[in-house]
């Protein structure tokens, strides 16, 4: 973790006037905080939603469990990432009552997750690694459902593909990109000016135009159309974020990777 490795410098938030405009749920997370000091500034964020072909699902799927439906043999994709482990753990209910437990599962729980994912393998056409991989799988009609990124939804809509996006009833994981200042920087004052510029509302809107990520500064919505605000969930940002279990540090990441590699190797 960069914040505990000595690679980044603790931030003087007083030098970032716009920091107070950032979404409180993002700034309150402990991922980039050590002993009360902040080491990173939230920049962009987003969910890992369910993406699906609306011609294959007349009604919006309401649960990750649908991916285990035998009717979907060779019709789904999963992300080649630990986020798929987290998703299966949610299906098994290991996020209740503490969503943070997803990131610190016991050996028994991880073995149950492994078995659950191995059960899913007959339905998996191909795993995806990049956003482009998943967009192509949908566009070529190789798959009809997957965990994905909002970027996939935007790109598929541009291609007039019948795509839907939803957060299932189990909720989903989410990510936050942070900006940091390296501990060895010889230009920290300039770095602070850069961070301040990058979290200003107008800059955040410009970044969103290119990436389709959700801005950490909800005030960016003043520069957006009503449709853009709605598509980025900035019209109800607090409630939407409550449905996302933002990634946390995984103390036993090596064990998680071991489990995931065993899933991929299983026949």
Strand ordering within the main sheet: 6-5-7-4-8
Shape call: globular
- Alpha plus pi helix count: 11
Regarding CATH, which class of the largest domain?
Alpha Beta
Question: What's the N-to-C terminus distance?
Answer: 34 Å
Assembly state = single chain
Alpha-beta classification: alpha/beta
The name of the CATH superfamily of the largest domain reads: Periplasmic binding protein-like II
Overall CATH architecture of the largest domain: 3-Layer(aba) Sandwich
Number of domains: 2
Largest sheet: 5 strands, mixed
- The low-confidence parts are none
Overall average residue pLDDT: 96
Please write the string of helix (H) and strand (E) elements. HHEEEEEHHEHEHEEHHEHHEH
The CATH topology of the largest domain, please?
D-Maltodextrin-Binding Protein, domain 2
- The portion of residues forming beta strands comes to 15-25%
Considering DSSP H and I runs of 4 or more, what fraction of the residues is helical? Answer: 25-40%
Beta strands, count: 11
Whole-angstrom Rg: 19 Å
Tell me what the structure shows:
With 267 residues, the chain is α/β, with parallel strands linked by helices. It folds into 2 domains: 2-46 and 174-246, D-Maltodextrin-Binding Protein, domain 2 (3-Layer(aba) Sandwich), CATH 3.40.190.10; 48-173 and 249-265, Periplasmic binding protein-like II (D-Maltodextrin-Binding Protein, domain 2, 3-Layer(aba) Sandwich), CATH 3.40.190.10. Helix content is 36%, strand content 16%. The protein contains 11 helices and 11 strands. It has a 5-stranded mixed β-sheet, with helices on both faces. It has a 4-stranded mixed β-sheet with strand order 10-3-9-11. Strands 1-2 form a two-stranded antiparallel sheet. α5 (131-139) crosses α6. The longest helix has 14 residues, at 107-120. The protein is globular, with a radius of gyration of 19 Å. The relative contact order is 0.21. The mean pLDDT is 96.
